[in-house]
């Protein structure tokens, strides 16, 4: 019930609205009750409303308002990108992107694969049912 | 203005277990169990240090929500003393000429009041749940109300008091009634 992810300097957040949708950013300073100064390796540092951010579990160790170089070094040291891609949230986003980028032939292949998987499951289920009744 | 975070903590004494889930606080102790529902408040309740302390937070609270933190803690403290020491409210009969005649019925859970100001009307007051009423033996014209929940005990006392209001008279002169004389606990220290 208590909150575990706090808005603090160094908190990594995901942008969920706007031009940089889907990008991971780091909270570098807090402007006021509603806005934060936010930075990432390939954007210009700028302010963003907290409503546009979803906080993640990842936090890195930086001083307030670090230079771009120190920010990038700290992100490498904390291995943010890998941690994100291995977390369940990050993996789900990657899968969503992959599915959205399928073309018709890919979707056909997926359909065949699902039918094959369903068939294998039904075969196992039939075997178990036979074991139970016998 | 909204204060980002205001928080307060309280110690829970030994012998008392407190459980809190979804703003419903349940306190258990030697005298029994009491629960209280704080769902009307915008506060976070959490037990820390393995149940030894209760922490109450208000995030982005206005002045009123911040004020509610301390009242919630006071309510929980009352639950804890209710469950360890219990509450005893004593009431005295006050009359100038007509002796108030009170009889306890229903195995100590209701009271009948006769001859208040010489009136023929019999006033019957049922005590709320968990509250026992008894006429004090050694002291003349005294009632003792016992219970675990301070809200119920004090409300029963108020019900008795309100049944004996004087009507259509100068109340500065006609001072008759049954008044709360002492608010204390059952187990003295």
UniProtKB/TrEMBL annotation, chain A:
It comes from the Eukaryota. InterPro entries: Rib_uL2_dom2, Ribosomal_eL14, Ribosomal_eL14_dom, Translation_prot_SH3-like_sf. Pfam families: Ribosomal_L14e. One of its GO terms (molecular function) is structural constituent of ribosome. This is 60S ribosomal protein L14-1. GO terms for cellular component: cytosolic large ribosomal subunit. The keyword Ribosomal protein applies. It comes from Cocos nucifera. SUPFAM superfamilies: Translation proteins SH3-like domain (SSF50104).
TrEMBL record, chain B:
One of its GO terms (molecular function) is rRNA binding. SUPFAM superfamilies: Ribosomal protein L6 (SSF56053). It comes from the Eukaryota. PROSITE patterns: RIBOSOMAL_L6_2. One of its GO terms (cellular component) is cytosolic large ribosomal subunit. GO terms for biological process: cytoplasmic translation. The keyword Ribosomal protein applies. InterPro entries: Ribosomal_uL6-like (IPR000702), Ribosomal_uL6-like_a/b-dom_sf (IPR036789), Ribosomal_uL6_a/b-dom (IPR020040), Ribosomal_uL6_CS2 (IPR002359). Keywords: Ribonucleoprotein, Ribosomal protein. Residues 12-86, 98-177 form the Large ribosomal subunit protein uL6 alpha-beta domain. Belongs to the universal ribosomal protein uL6 family. This is 60S ribosomal protein L9. It comes from Cocos nucifera (Coconut palm).
